[in-house]
Automatic annotation (TrEMBL):
InterPro entries: Bact_Kbp, FlgT_C_sf, LysM, LysM_dom_sf. It holds the Pfam family LysM. Keywords: Signal. The keyword Transcription does not apply. Residues 1-19 form the signal peptide. The keyword Signal applies. Residues 38-87 form the LysM domain. SUPFAM superfamilies: LysM domain. Gene3D superfamilies: FlgT, C-terminal domain, LysM domain. It comes from Sapientia aquatica. This is LysM peptidoglycan-binding domain-containing protein.
Length: 360
């Protein structure tokens, strides 16, 4: 694991970045690739990010080249397998068309029959492609959980196991005390582990490990009577002392990529799963959250911190090498001081202490 130098935090950030919302700062150029294809047939398994990466230098620019603002594409479930994405080189836009069109109509040779993006409500409609691969983030939409200090103190807790087993397996009974607030389905969490800022070492949140789910089968009638639960699913072994939280009503949404409104700089706090490095399609946490202006869909760039070296050609003073950009992070879950992001493209492995910045 690389050591982090605080000297790098003194460097200024570039303020010239693309803002997806038209009310935000002046956008930068969203350039097409020199070898971008004229069209792409949408197939099952495609994502908006993946399709955009075929046409654009920066895949997260796709809201701009569709000529849409963030308000219009909060829930953009409008591309389906079998449709064709056309590149309108003259207008600098991507357009959606039906198969079988001649390709000799108006708009510089584009088909005259086109579909326009439409706003749809609710969760991702059957068959519609998403912004990013849903299967990679769905487990993280409700777990793990980042909490403030002592948030788990007053939650129901497991106090006994079936036949005094040390651990509780699927379909076995667990007994818990605490106010259920009329809920019957719960997620089970292991008491929190502190997440520390890589530089200041201050605690910025507590990550609780998800261990499984339980369902209420009998509610305690007396103040000191435990509630009986059956274990419906386990990720790790459940045991006495684990805490219960109601299962959230969380759906996999179609996230719209956009840079943060203002310049931000943060660091990688942890790689989920306790490993030291993370690659493409893996989840990491960063020390930026809602209080830093981060929201769902925020795109950040990953940098390896430039080393501090001695200038051996001059007066031996210390100099800092530039931070090296090596990847893109797509934020999909945000807490107060911490966010989870999916690594989209990287040329190197992400590590704790690496820098995240607003795209340049």
């Amino acid at each position: 694991m690389k050591k982090f130098s605080t000297i790098a935090l003194l460097l200024a950030l570039s303020s010239s970045v693309f803002a997806a919302d038209e009310m935000n700062a002046q956008p930068t150029q969203c350039s097409f690739l020199p070898n971008a294809p004229d069209q792409h047939l949408v197939v099952k398994g495609d994502t908006l990010w993946g399709i955009s990466s075929m046409f654009l230098e920066h895949a997260w620019c796709w809201p701009q080249v569709w000529g849409m603002n963030r308000e219009e594409i909060k829930n953009p479930h409008w591309i389906y397998p079998g449709q064709i994405v056309y590149l309108d080189r003259t207008a600098g836009r991507l357009r959606l068309g039906q198969p079988g069109t001649s390709g000799t109509g108006n708009q510089g040779g584009l088909p005259t029959v086109r579909l326009s993006p439409q706003i749809r409500s609710g969760s991702v409609e059957a068959g519609a492609i998403g912004s990013i691969p849903a299967n990679l983030i769905e487990p993280f939409l409700s777990q793990p959980l980042v909490l403030e200090e002592n948030e788990l103190v007053n939650t129901p807790r497991i106090v006994a196991t079936q036949e005094n087993h040390v651990n509780i397996a699927k379909l076995e009974r667990a007994y818990a005390l605490g106010d259920l607030h009329d809920e019957s389905n719960f997620q089970v969490y292991r008491p929190s582990v502190a997440l520390k800022d890589p530089t200041t070492k201050a605690i910025i949140g507590y990550e609780s490990a998800y261990v499984g789910t339980v369902k209420l089968v009998r509610q305690g009638k007396l103040p000191n009577e435990a509630h009986a639960f059956v274990v419906t699913n386990t990720k790790e072994e459940m045991t006495v002392g684990d805490r219960l939280l109601p299962v959230p009503n969380q759906e996999a949404n179609n996230y719209v990529p956009h840079p943060p409104v203002s310049a931000v700089e943060g660091q990688v706090v942890s790689v989920y799963g306790g490993v030291k490095q993370a690659g493409q399609n893996q989840t990491i946490s960063i020390n930026l959250g809602a209080e830093n202006g981060i929201d769902v869909g925020t795109v950040l760039q990953l940098y390896r911190l430039g080393k501090i070296i001695q200038d051996k050609t001059g007066n031996k003073e210390l100099i800092k090498l530039p931070d090296e950009k090596y990847g893109t992070l797509f934020v999909y879950r945000v807490f107060k001081h911490v966010s989870y992001g999916l690594i989209m493209q990287v040329t190197d492995a992400a590590e704790v202490g690496d820098i995240v910045k607003k795209p340049e």
